[in-house]
Design goal:
Helix content is 32%, strand content 7%. α4 (103-115) packs parallel to α5 and α5 (133-146) runs parallel beside α6. The chain has helices at 2-11, 38-47, 64-73, 103-115, 133-146, 172-186, 226-229, 232-235, 248-255; strands at 92-95, 122-125, 149-152, 193-195, 198-200. The strands form 2 sheets. A 3-stranded parallel sheet has the order 1-2-3, covered by helices on one side. By secondary structure, it is mainly α. The protein is elongated and about 65 Å long.
Amino acid sequence: RGAARESARLAHPFGGCCCGSAALRPGDSHHFAPVGSWEELHRIAAEHFADDLPVDEGMLSWSKASLAAYFESGVNSHATASRPSEPGQGRLYAVSDVHTDKPENMAWWRRLEECGAHRADSLILAGDVSHRPDVLLETLQIAARAFRTVHFVPGNHDLWVRGGGGGGGGTSIDRLLEIEATCARLGVCTAPALAAGAIVVPILSWHHPSWDTEPDISGWRGIPPVERCLMDYHMTRWPPGVRQEDGSAAAAVDELNDRPRAGGGGGGGDG
């Protein structure tokens, strides 16, 4: 299973998603009917390179969509598998760096909604979606429709406001607050919440110069400073007196964690 399974997982960065080359659509009712037979159950397992995962008689009542999600998850024990045997429990997925400003990534992201297999599940979307507000909005809208609850925290790319980022004259802090307001409108959680039996705590952060503990490179002339190489120094804009070079940008973002936050989606749907 090794190489073939790994290739399949690399082809679909959402390891547990059942949206592969044959995307499931809400209108395909046979994908949500009970699988019914051992032969069909084992066929689906083999199709997802997962014929080594445990199966039992109770799984005959699962839908093809649920089985595909379970087999692609790669969990190798019943004890730790978040199987959809109890209504409403769902799974908790986490993904980042989807970069849906790339057309092929957005096409894959849209299939998450089309397959309809994750409506009882929760998603942690951990930043780096897009520097374009329109793309970020569409990505969050799709996620909110595809999953039961969505928990979001922005990454560095999401706070870019220069070079076509649509930031106008605003700062990256302004962009962050705008993103939170968008999440609140969509019901996307940006504050601590429950999801699939777990506590999800989105924490805002920005890289700090003290994180670089490596000694300076010696014996190699002409190395440009990080400020000239790292795009964050060119694509962000900060309030007066706030700079990345002295760590004050990281401190300004971190201070936002101390605000009371409604969280958009509230309790995450689990109680």
